[in-house]
Amino acid sequence: MYKDKNSGLILPPSAGVSRRKALKMGAFGIGGMTLGGSFLAACGSDGDDASSPATTAAATATTAAGLESIKAHWVYIGPPDDNGWTQEHERGRLSAQAALGDQMESAFTPNIGFDAGTTQLFEQLAADGNDIIFANTEYSGLLSGVAEANPETKFVETNGHVFTDNLFGFYLAHETTAYLMGVAAAHLTPNGRIGYIGAFPTATAFNDVNGMLLGARSVNPDATVEAVMVSTFFDPQAAAQAANALLDNGVEFLFGVMDEPTFLQISEEAGVWTGYWNLDFRTAAPTKYTAHYDLSAFGPFYTEQCQAVLDGTWSASSTPILLDTPLGAMGDQVPQEVQDAVATAAAAFEDGSLNVYEGPLVDNTGNEVLAAGDTIDAQGAYELNFALDGVSGL
Length: 394
Hints:
The protein is of the alpha/beta class. The protein is 33% helix and 19% strand. The N terminus is likely disordered.
């Protein structure tokens, strides 16, 4: 961690690492983290040499029950120490590596964006003999064509929407988590105004804002959610501008999907309650931290997928696998009555007596999107494309 001299904000060590440098680092990663044997160098579109001892390694031995060992690689949109989304995936990778030990050689490539170099990277990883390749964001056509050309390689794409014999998508069932965050927010905000800092207008954002709105309105029927979309998951300056704009506009609860803690720090300084999408980061807002989305399911999921490759039982799902995403532990200063209200709602979800999306519901353009008596389940929420009445900015 270091403090940026211009903004004074706390940033991860890799915040200044360029994509070109990350590609040259390849599987060493930001911190030189490669486990379980030989290392692999990933290549980008800039013509850097990508030779590696791993490219000459013998093919993985096969037994009647499956494989004796496998190679697995993770492709990350951000750095593995971002204090957010990618760090949680890295924890999942390390969990899988610890569980499988010498049976798996794993590595990662960080800071991979969306251009032709990304396709080249996936092609190189397949050519280098990786049995399974994970992506921690949706690369869409940049990955799907490579999967089609390499049917023996398994591909798993976070938030993916392409499903073939060797490629499928998985994600998080987080609309319920957002609802619980909304319940807490409504109890903590006298005016019922929730601010949301998002990245892109996708189902992730829609489920966040809708879930928080519906949870908040179960407590305060006049609650609203005001969103500012910044078209990035990692930009401290953009996050700061969005946070200040929302706070200046009077929101009394601030939530964000950023991969760094800028908005948490600003919210703490303003004395406004806040919550985080990713890991537990109450240290950034010690007196105003509410909770976070618990992403600890990544570790068991990655372990399960890699074990299936080892066992020879792996198969691609034809529908999204959606992981349970509970609300994390409450912050130290959250009143007990708020914690109790959240626990009551969580129990209702658990026993099936509560659904996030129950009709009638109208979107923020005035159209009915769910008729009375109808519901939307987690699979339907995965494809959601509307913001409800009561949500602005999205």
